[in-house]
């Protein structure tokens, strides 16, 4: 056979084989990875469609985040801020701080990251104290209030009183979910779910090529977190979602129930009929903070706020006058409910 013909034949063969290889890779089903573990005192689960397992990168990112915003970490940025050290905080802290102040202003103080001293006094913070009286509450309110803290031009935290303490527990977990979602997106991953303690970001489709199905727990008293009965199921994608409730973190004293949601405006635990608030937003950090704010507001105020803000959707589960569970959905939320 002529050498020229041989070369042409070899070239055509390589071209055919290359085309077959490209088509095979294109049609190959990329597997879903599932990574889980413990972080921030809760569980995380990350499901994503990718060839490689990214657990080491995911946990490294979560460890960096913990080093910024965990109040239980003695060397964390937020701990250093609470100790009034003179330094410029990292970007994790600054992003959460700025968004927190924005939402505090929007909600007229229903959300407030300076509530830590009050939470501690009522036994729900990272320090346990005796049951407070009205005198103590009045005193603690002098060192709480989002308007009493700000960032300087160079990014340092400025407090009106050095006793002011910050706690980002009602927003940081949601932001951690966003951080991991961004990590996956930077890898070009289109289909994933990030879940940290029930705060969630979803993109694309699940392994069954469907929308992601997320259940909302029935909010019955469950301090041991063993109840898995669902009130409703949502089918969602391309959003952030967070739920806040008073049915797991509470105690009784003198026959009265005290829930962990503290109203920063009064200094006392809320006494509303709203039992849980689930929020859908563009990012999980915002959803997390709004869910907490709605638990502070109570049903009527929360309904009015949610309906006035088309960029968020909400589901409120509450107890009616007969003690039966009822569900309120904003109009935008209705489309997510699994029929």
Question: How would you describe this protein?
Answer:
The protein has 339 residues and is of the alpha+beta class. The protein has helices at residues 3-27, 55-69, 77-82, 91-106, 116-121, 134-141, 172-186, 284-297, 299-308, 331-334; strands at 32-39, 42-49, 149-151, 157-159, 192-196, 199-203, 212-217, 230-236, 239-245, 250-253, 256-259, 274-281, 313-319, 325-329. Strands 1-2-5-6-9-12-13-14 form an eight-stranded antiparallel β-sheet. A two-stranded antiparallel ribbon has the order 3-4. A two-stranded antiparallel sheet has the order 7-8. The protein starts with a helix and ends in a 5-residue tail after the last helix.
Q: Would you summarize the structure shown here?
A:
The chain is α+β, with helices and mostly antiparallel strands. Helix content is 35%, strand content 24%.
SS strand fraction:
15-25%
Order of helices and strands: HEEHHHHHEEHEEEEEEEEHHEEH
Across the major sheet, the strand order is 1-2-5-6-9-12-13-14
Please give the largest β-sheet: 8 strands, antiparallel
Radius of gyration: 24 Å
**Mean pLDDT, all residues:** 88
What is the first-to-last residue Cα distance? 69 Å
Give me the count of strands. Answer: 14
Helix proportion: 25-40%
Structural class: alpha+beta
Q: What is the overall shape?
A: globular
What's the helix count? 10
> Segments where pLDDT lies below 50 for 5+ residues?
none
């Amino acid at each position: 056979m002529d050498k020229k013909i041989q070369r042409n034949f070899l070239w055509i063969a390589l071209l055919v084989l290359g085309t077959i290889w490209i088509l095979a890779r294109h049609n190959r089903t990329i597997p879903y990875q599932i990574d889980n573990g413990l972080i921030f005192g809760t569980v995380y689960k990350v499901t994503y469609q990718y060839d490689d397992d990214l657990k080491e990168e995911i946990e490294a990112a979560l460890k960096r985040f913990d080093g910024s915003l965990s109040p239980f970490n003695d060397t964390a940025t937020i701990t250093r801020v609470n100790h009034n050290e003179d330094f410029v905080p990292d970007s994790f802290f600054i992003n959460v701080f700025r968004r927190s102040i924005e939402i505090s202003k929007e909600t007229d103080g229903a959300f407030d990251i300076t509530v830590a001293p009050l939470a501690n006094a009522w036994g729900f913070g990272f320090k346990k104290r005796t049951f407070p009286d009205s005198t103590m509450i009045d005193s603690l309110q002098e060192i709480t209030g989002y308007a009493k803290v700000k960032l300087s031009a160079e990014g340092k935290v400025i407090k009106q009183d050095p006793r002011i303490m910050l706690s980002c527990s009602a927003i940081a977990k949601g932001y951690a979910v966003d951080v991991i979602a961004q990590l996956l997106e930077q890898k070009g991953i289109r289909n994933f779910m990030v879940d940290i303690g029930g705060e969630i970001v979803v993109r694309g489709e699940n392994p069954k090529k469907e929308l992601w199905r997320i259940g909302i727990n029935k909010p019955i008293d469950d301090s041991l977190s063993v109840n898995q009965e669902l009130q409703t199921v949502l089918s969602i994608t391309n959003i952030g979602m967070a739920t806040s409730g008073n049915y797991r973190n509470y105690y009784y004293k003198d026959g009265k129930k005290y829930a962990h949601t503290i109203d920063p405006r009064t200094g006392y635990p809320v006494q509303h009929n709203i039992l849980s608030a689930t929020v859908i937003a563009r990012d999980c950090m915002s959803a997390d903070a709004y869910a907490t704010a709605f638990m502070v507001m109570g049903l009527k105020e929360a309904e009015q706020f949610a309906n006035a803000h088309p960029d968020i959707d909400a589901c409120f589960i509450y107890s009616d006058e007969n003690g039966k569970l009822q569900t309120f959905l904003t109009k935008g939320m209705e489309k997510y409910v699994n029929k």
